[in-house]
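Input chain follows. Return structure tokens only.
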Amino acid sequence: MPIGVKGVRVGPQKAFRDSVPALRKAKKLKLKYYALSLSGKHRTAWRISQIGVRKALEKETKQRFIRKQERRQLAITRLDGACREHGLIYNTFIHNMARHNIMLNRFVMAEMAVSEPRTFRVGALLTSARSVVLVPFISG
């Protein structure tokens, strides 16, 4: 049997009841810590801070998904623009990348299109439907 507050052996029900206030206090301290980033009554008033913290956590969760979507859309937009510079369509480019076993994700390819356009040009020529043989590197 567990030992109670004064060292007396007690049943499991009593031991659990003794630990509940400690859990409540820890939960309350955690919520107050989260509320420090809020302003006004959302920071000081207990009821309002509960609501404010809950809403902030919900928004944070939604924002993570939105941030991922926006990052992917930006990469696709950059890739589409780079593909059109070389006379390709984005969907065809992605399909041919997979067909030729070029294992680069959209983020890496978008970064390559912006920072290393010559390298991207070679990749675009390799994956274009017109190219059957390897195209030599052309400077310029």
